[in-house]
């Protein structure tokens, strides 16, 4: 058997490929990213790109030493003679904050809104919607603690999802509080779980020592059962006055703008950098455990990376998960346009001439040509398979007379144009 792609990765395939589904269709990825770009850039976000590999220390300090991502799912990058200290990025936020600090982006008008899209890497147990290389669209706002920014970020997420045609999504909103609130909650959890330590999974025994809150997002069924049995109080019960006021204000804005959300008191998120507002986006078609999107505020992250204080907030959705949700809802992609013009030569000697016509047409339109001489019937069949609107067949007469007959494949209408007028004619057609 020929070499296969690594487990947990996907190829993104061209239209018409066998075994095409929405989540491996290149055009679908393009549609999601392009839709997100339109919505986010209208709100003032600018594109940012950061390296796919970063210092391991960035991921450890950013995402947090007690998270599954850092403890079990990191892809380490080696090259000859290297210190082995690079990691394929598991998410975008830490890299964006690093880039902000390193490149002096503080000088730009605050708050700075940026967005990123690209592959992320986590060595997870592979299942539907859980890949080792997946793709995110990531939106981040740096330099403001205003709850208005939180509400706008959530509202923009909902706008993106609506623009994609999804209907059955739910925003689950919570708050992780400020660090002292979190300390108090961890203390409470330690007290609750310590007497039943033996019933916890090995991972969670470890979490009990390092960061008890991480037990709550354990993927072990036994742990989840225990959590239910103990009727664990939610993080929201532990919010201090300031975090609570911030949370109330975010909700007020969302209600004012009619952005729907449910309060989820138990949201803890799987990364350590969060503070205050945190949320997830869920969809019935993808399963209750798999969020389409996660986001929240991370006001302490820049300091954790060794920089000055820079408040921040953002979200990232998994493009593959979004596509699974779109598939579950039967959302249709806009039809991809084929070439406007297809040019085929009837004799081998005129193939290069036909090619040059198609290539000159590309200054104003999509155009393809046949790479070898064709009989009219096969040229028509090929043009139709490619979804062309116009076909031109080139014989020696056309070459000698400097004319070209364009046949509209939909209406059957034929137009004779001077070859020198072809570009102007196509430009006119393209406007309709
Ligand atoms: P996250 O919740 O770890 O947050 O990931 C965000 C989204 O990425 C998830 O909701 C999911 O759709 C997708 N995702 C995560 N892991 C996988 C996987 N193994 N396979 C497929 N899709 C996956 C973050 O990454 C944060 N950086 C979000 C953020 C931005 N917070 C603030 N700003």
TrEMBL record:
Main location: cytoplasm
Protein localization: Cytoplasm
Classification via Pfam families: HGTP_anticodon (PF03129), tRNA-synt_His (PF13393)
Reactions accelerated catalytically: tRNA(His) + L-histidine + ATP = L-histidyl-tRNA(His) + AMP + diphosphate + H(+)
EC primary class: ligase
Start and end residues of each stretch annotated as Disordered: 1-20
Ranges of residues in domain Aminoacyl-transfer RNA synthetases class-II family profile: 32-334
Keywords, comma-separated and alphabetical: Aminoacyl-tRNA synthetase, ATP-binding, Cytoplasm, Ligase, Nucleotide-binding, Protein biosynthesis
CDD domains: HisRS-like_core, HisRS_anticodon
EC number, UniProt record: 6.1.1.21
Family listed: Belongs to the class-II aminoacyl-tRNA synthetase family.
PANTHER family linked to this entry: HISTIDINE--TRNA LIGASE, MITOCHONDRIAL-RELATED, HISTIDYL-TRNA SYNTHETASE
Subunit structure: Homodimer.
Record's protein name: Histidine--tRNA ligase
Organism: Deinococcus antarcticus
Lineage per the UniProt record: Bacteria, Thermotogati, Deinococcota, Deinococci, Deinococcales
Name of encoding gene: hisS
């Amino acid at each position: 058997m020929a070499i296969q792609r690594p487990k947990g990765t996907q190829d993104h395939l061209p239209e018409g490929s066998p075994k095409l589904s929405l989540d491996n269709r290149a055009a679908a990825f393009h549609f999601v990213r392009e839709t997100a770009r339109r919505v986010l850039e209208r709100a003032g976000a600018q594109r940012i790109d950061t390296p796919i590999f970063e210092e391991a220390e960035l991921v450890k300090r950013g995402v947090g030493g007690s998270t599954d991502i850092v403890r079990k799912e990191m892809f380490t990058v080696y090259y000859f003679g290297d210190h082995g200290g690079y990691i394929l990025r598991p998410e975008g936020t830490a890299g964006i904050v690093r880039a902000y600090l390193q490149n002096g982006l503080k000088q730009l008008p605050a708050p700075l809104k940026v967005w990123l899209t690209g592959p992320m890497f986590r060595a997870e147990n592979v299942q539907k919607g859980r890949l080792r290389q997946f793709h995110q669209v990531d939106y981040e706002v740096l330099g403001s603690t205003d709850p208005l920014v939180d509400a706008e970020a959530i509202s923009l997420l909902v706008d993106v999802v609506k623009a994609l045609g999804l209907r059955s999504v739910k925003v689950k909103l919570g708050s992780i509080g400020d660090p002292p609130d979190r300390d108090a909650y961890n203390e409470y959890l330690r007290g609750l779980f310590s007497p039943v330590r033996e019933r916890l999974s090995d991972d969670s025994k470890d979490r009990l020592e390092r960061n008890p809150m991480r037990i709550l997002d354990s993927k072990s069924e036994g742990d989840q059962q225990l959590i239910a049995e103990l009727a664990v109080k939610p993080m929201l019960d532990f919010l201090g006055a300031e975090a609570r006021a911030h949370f109330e204000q975010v909700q007020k804005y969302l209600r004012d703008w009619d952005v729907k959300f449910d309060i989820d008191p138990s949201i803890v998120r799987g990364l350590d950098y969060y503070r205050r507002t945190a949320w997830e986006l869920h969809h019935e078609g993808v399963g209750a455990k798999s969020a389409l999107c996660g986001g929240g505020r991370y006001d302490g992250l820049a300091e954790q990376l060794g920089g000055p204080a820079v408040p921040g907030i953002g979200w990232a959705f998994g493009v593959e998960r979004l596509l699974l949700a779109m598939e579950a809802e039967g959302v249709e992609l806009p039809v991809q346009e084929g070439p406007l013009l297809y040019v085929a030569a009837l004799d081998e000697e005129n193939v290069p001439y036909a090619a040059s016509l198609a290539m000159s047409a590309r200054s104003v339109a999509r155009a393809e040509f046949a790479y070898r001489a064709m009989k009219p019937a096969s040229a028509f069949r090929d043009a139709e398979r490619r979804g062309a609107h116009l076909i031109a067949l080139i014989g020696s007469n056309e070459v000698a007379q400097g004319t070209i007959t364009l046949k509209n494949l939909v209406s059957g209408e034929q137009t004779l144009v001077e070859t020198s007028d072809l570009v102007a004619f196509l430009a006119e057609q393209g406007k309709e």
